[in-house]
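User: Design a sequence. Structure:
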């Protein structure tokens, strides 16, 4: 998650989010247990077997552990190995054999510069995996600037070779996340919205499996939820 904020200075709301995710307090543990399943299912056809190397980079992994990767984010929180800005990566060129950039580019001020930096630190023959939202609600972590299509990601690829591209989450995911946000929008109090999120999430999540069928259609691109692209740096 990235913005023009100074490195190491995190908005209070994000501090609270990451604190609650890791908290062992009984209330936060109970809330995590009550949380509904995600309203989307990952596309089983998305490639995932591109090789890891000795050095691999994960961009935007605040609050999580990512084994086998150097985990970077704008903020020095749990799981982050290096707090830095993706627009100016503090690594030498041609270092990483694989880079993961999952739901980050919509949060950066200059995605082309971030792409240039990722290409610079990626080793020749290495792979870059990018996931971005298309039809997805506004979400600030800490800012939310844009949305992407597969064509837009291919345009950003520049000299890198496109190896694979498609949809990670499909039209049903779009429908469900928008429906949940719409219901919450109708409610005046935060506690009511939190309750509605839990109830709607549990009621609606079984519908997510429709995407196993819909993702096979080329028309899924019209209201797909998240798209992906795999790029390879030419040797």
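Assistant: Done.
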């Amino acid at each position: 998650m990235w913005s023009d904020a100074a490195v190491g200075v995190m908005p209070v709301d994000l501090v609270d989010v990451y604190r609650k995710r890791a908290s062992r307090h009984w209330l936060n543990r109970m809330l995590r247990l009550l949380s509904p399943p995600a309203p989307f299912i990952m596309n089983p056809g998305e490639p995932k077997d591109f090789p890891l190397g000795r050095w691999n980079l994960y961009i935007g992994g605040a609050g999580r552990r990512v084994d086998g990767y150097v985990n970077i984010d704008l903020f020095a929180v749990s799981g982050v190995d290096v707090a830095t800005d993706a627009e100016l990566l503090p690594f030498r060129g041609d270092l990483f054999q694989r880079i993961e950039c999952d739901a980050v580019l919509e949060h950066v001020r200059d995605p082309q510069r971030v792409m240039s930096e990722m290409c610079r630190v990626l080793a020749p023959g290495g792979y870059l995996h990018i996931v971005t939202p298309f039809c997805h609600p506004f979400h600030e972590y800490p800012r939310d600037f844009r949305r992407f299509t597969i064509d837009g990601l291919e345009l950003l690829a520049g000299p890198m070779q496109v190896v694979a591209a498609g949809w990670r989450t499909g039209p049903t995911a779009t429908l469900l996340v928008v429906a949940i946000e719409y219901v919450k929008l109708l409610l005046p109090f935060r506690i009511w919205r939190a309750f509605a999120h839990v109830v709607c999430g549990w009621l609606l999540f079984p519908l997510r499996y429709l995407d196993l069928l819909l993702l096979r259609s080329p028309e899924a691109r019209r209201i797909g939820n998240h798209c992906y692209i795999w790029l390879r740096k030419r040797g």
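The two ends are 30 Å apart (CA to CA). The mean pLDDT is 90.
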